[in-house]
Amino acid sequence: MKVLMFGWEFPPHISGGLGTACYGLTKGLASLKNMEVLFVVPKAFGDEDQSEIQLIGANKIPVAQKEFTFKETGTKMDYLEVQSDVIPYLSEDEFWQLKNQILPPKIKFIKTTEGLNIDFSGGYGINLMEEIKNYAVVAEIIARQNNFNLVHAHDWLAYPAGIAAKKASGKPLVIHVHATDFDRSGGNVNPTVYAIEREGMEMADKIIAVSNFTRQTVIEKYNIPPEKIVTIYNAVEPVSKESQSNFKKGVNEKLVTFLGRITLQKGPEYFIEAAHLVLKKTDNVRFVMAGSGDKMNEMVERVAQLGMADKFHFTGFLKGDDVNRMFQMTDVFVMPSVSEPFGIVPLEAMQADVPVIISNQSGVSEILNHAIKIDFWDTFAMADSIYGLLTYPALARFLKKSGKQEVGGLKWHHSARHVQHVYKSLLNV
Amino acid sequence: MEQGMKSICLFFQVHQPFRHRRYRFFDIGNDHYYYDDYANETIMRNIADKSYLPTNKLLLNLLNNLNGQFKVAFSITGIALEQFELYAPEVIDSFRELAQTGCVEFLSETYSHSLASLKDKAIFEEQVKLHEQKIIDLFGQKPKVFRNTEMIYSDDIGAHIYQMGYNAILTEGARHILGWKSPNFLYVNANNPRLKVLMRNYKLSDDISFRFSNTNWSEYPLTAEKFVGWLKKLDPKEEVVNLFLSYESFGERQPKESGIFSFLEHLVKQVVQEKSLQFSTPSEMIEQLQPVSVVSVPHPISWADEERDLTAWLGNEMQKEAFDKLYAVSKRMAVCTSPELKKDWNYLQASDHFYYMSTKFFSSGEVQNYVNPFDSPYEAFINYMNVLSDFKMKLNTVTPEIDLEHDAAELHRLIVIKDQKIKKMEAELQRIHKRKPAKKKTEKKKKS
Questions:
Q1: pLDDT digit string (tens) for B32-78?
Q2: Which residues of B touch A395 (CB under 8 A)?
Q3: Which terminal CB of chain A, N or C, has fewer other CB atoms within 10 Å?
Q4: Topology annotation, domain B6-295
Q5: How far off is chain B from A389, nearest CA to CA, in Å?
Q6: B161-172 burial, b for 16+ CB within 10 Å, e for fewer?
Q7: Which of A385, A398, A401, A407 to mutate to test the interface with B (most CBs of B within 10 A)?
């Protein structure tokens, strides 16, 4: 069985949860018998391996085709990079770095975040729509020139590509909903994005949602019949031993961490209010907000206003090893998301032996037992849980142990099997 | 006793904990009231109306009409009795009426439905004495037979119980303990054979309390005829059938609509009519029957779960931690005289608090079939530890933990005394001030 898959990003250029999830899923699929994946991403970094560049299509759209090998399993996958004029980037730093590289002048930069939030202000939207359409045009060509049984598209930017491939080939389309615009915007949906999302969902033969929470959004907000949508939870890559360096924190105090984008969706203000409540009662603790985002300044102001700036720290955006180091210093991890389709970060924290507090408004809370769950708005419950974890060592010990065990059972291999099951049902195998 | 005659021992357990309210850490040191009065009252009212009162009424009728041939035993925890007094005093009255028939035996147990037997002998004895006194006060009976919280039993606990003056104990007829042996005989304790051990027939007991209304059960519907038929079919050599149930089975776990009350009524009437069956209280039974063998229970058992062990209350690290931290103050509680603290101490010991912290159902995938006021075991643990922290702070002001605190307590005492003195003097001063203008007036009058 061969799947033509459309994504947004793939290693080494990963900006957030979507890239991580796509990587994990394709890796899981590649480990299954009789599964082949052809992965397509738009790309314009210019650092592709030029030797492997192949020209696909009569309209001279350059495409990089590579063979990607998964280190751990040794399995291989075909991987296509479409020369596109859009570059997803995550942080301001990255933006400047990319801009300083010598790139064709036509290239447009799209600020993406974990949930691919795109700012349409300043008449920029029309061009982006053009690019998404271009991606679809290329998709159509790829679909004509390759043999496959199914099309699978990840999140809204790839939906038009998926639809085009379906139309060109007549093969069934699976769309994978990692987030909807309702999560990203906090209810203020962009009508253009909504239209694309809805069209993708309507054209799809089957929809995969990353949680029941997201599935419900698709049913209620996009009017999709429930029987068309299945929930398949994400998983987490097992950590390699190398990344577990022994890092000691420089302070004796306990550390409570928020790690994620500082945006409305992630609920950073609730974390700050909870921190304030905890600090009223106990002194031997510090709070860290790691990440960047449009609400950052507001949060810094709020911390100052509450007079706890000496105990509350902002680190800015953290990458790779810094994330691991942060986890190693952390005693309690909090994810107070207001609306989180899945939420992979608490799983990473649990892998690093950190007890986690998560909001009931996250998809991941549907599958985790060994995490403390609270409502994001209930700052009293959040503060009480933080205090409990800091004060009663048996609780933290138990959660560390049982949490690590639990997260060890969440394997991409299992998720991939479910996805394969969906494929089979569509192909009547 | 007649050959081929079987004694049916019907025993009911009655217990309700004092549930804690959401006690946040901000409350520690600020608010010393831990209880969810609304939940406690609602739950008690509900269960009294649905279960305790109608079942008591039915039993009273049967006891009055069957001329002493129907007998039944109860154990009611002290904290359940306290809640009756607070929220449903008529339940106490109805139990009193049952007691007056002379066919109802009240058993001894811990006052708080506590797990003290596993931890602290002195506290355990105190708990049992407290409960005994309450039973004597309310029902005019001195209990002779003991039943431990959740049927927890081991050879050591049994031997200890005998030393405390009881001659029999009730426990679970756990399969891994009895092996090929039948629970339908009288046994004795392995350390001290003078203590008789009554083993619960869990199959027949659970048929009533758990399976009665289960339509997927192969024996559904269960009728009194069918049940009595099973009793008659038992090996003629077997002498006793111990049906130990939690009292809420009637009307609560098995709702009224399932026909549980008429089942109970007909069961009792038919057993009385059967020549080979009779009702006995635990005390009668140990007088009538000869024990057949020793039963050896080196590790504590209970009547909970498939495993019949302690893991429902002391299975994970959090439960053990909370349990250890609670009993770490035992010694200081022994010298504490504050009635308020003693009350909290009693309520804190209820096994239910530890049950709420259980993580067992995560692995079994079963839904907890027990009313748990907390959404997760973690929340339950945090809440309990917050309450315990405040309790310890309160205790420190009365009976200090270490010398420094001792000094602090001494100073605190001095401050209280000085405060009182100051108040007294202030009052005196005010009195004097008031008097002065009065004097002036009289002086003026004199002048004029």
A1: 999 999 999 999 999 999 999 999 999 999 999 998 999 999 999 99
A2: 318, 321, 378, 381-382, 385
A3: C
A4: 7-stranded beta/alpha barrel (3.20.110)
A5: 8
A6: bbeeebbbbbbb
A7: A398
